[in-house]
Amino acid sequence: MTTLHVKFFAGTTALLFSGLVTAAPIFWTDWTGGNVATGAGFQGVGTITTTTATVTVNYTNANGIGFYQASGGNDYYANGSFGSGGRNDSISPYTSSAVDNSPTGTDIVALSRAGSQTLSFSESIANPVFAFVSLNGNGYAFLNQDFNILSVGGEDGNACGYWGCGGVTKVVTDLGGGDFLYELNSSNIGGSEPHGVIQFTGAFSTLVWESASNEYWNGFTVGVQGTAVEVFPPSNSVPEPGTLALAGLGLASLIGRRQRKI
To answer: Where is the Ice-binding protein C-terminal domain (predicted)?
Structure first.
């Protein structure tokens, strides 16, 4: 089993991936209502309104969450300590050469439980971006789906986030049998409070990932460049909607296999 650790250098990463995804306004999720789960766990619903479509977003977490902020509350996407720097997208931890605008409003899903969770979209979306807040004691793992680290607070001219600064690493682990695990973890370099954005390239209808710990709390929201139909012209081959989980092979079991091997 081979493990590769990738340190994030904002300028270098932006250069490497500038040809893959160009700068664009992001349509962020407007989370609404409260917990709509009919059984145990948590389910939240939101909408993404693009230039031509309204996409329904469903988030499910069978293990429950820390809290859900769908209207008002603290602006955890503001710059600087406790948001003292306000909103300034020119130096925001959530903007980059690929993301023009920080998350809309104050909507956030705050996590506090280890385990699997799912985002599903009512139609295929393009090049989703994932904004993370205070990823210090937790980490996220994606099976067989690479991602690009676009921005991090405190690096490459970006302001620190609401809770401070801190770097992140991407850890790529070869699980064998053609399976790879892509993990986003705090590097504890430059601080212990990472805030930033990662991006997946292509068309997706579902995002599935694993939280590594029960740390309270770390939060996220999700945005898109548009629907797959909007971003990938019909004259070209539209990528098949993907999923960040391998059918029939649980992410948790693969992580367990990795840990046993270690």
So the answer is: 237-260
Q: Are 3 and 25 within 8 A, CB to CB?
A: no
Residue 196, burial from CB neighbour count under 10 angstroms (0-12, 13-18, 19+)? buried
Query: Would you say residue 172 has pLDDT above 80?
Result: yes
Q: What is the amino acid identity at position 221?
A: T
Q: pLDDT band for 39, please (50, 70, 90 cuts).
A: confident
Instruction: Please state the pTM of the whole predicted model.
Output: 0.84
Q: Do residues 99 and 23 touch, judged by C-beta distance below 8 A?
A: yes
CB atoms within 10 A of CB 252: 13
Burial category of 32 from C-beta neighbours within 10 Å (exposed 0-12, middle 13-18, buried 19 and up): middle
Q: How many alpha carbons lie under 13 Å from residue 168 in its C-beta half-sphere?
A: 30
How many domains are there within the chain?
Answer: 1
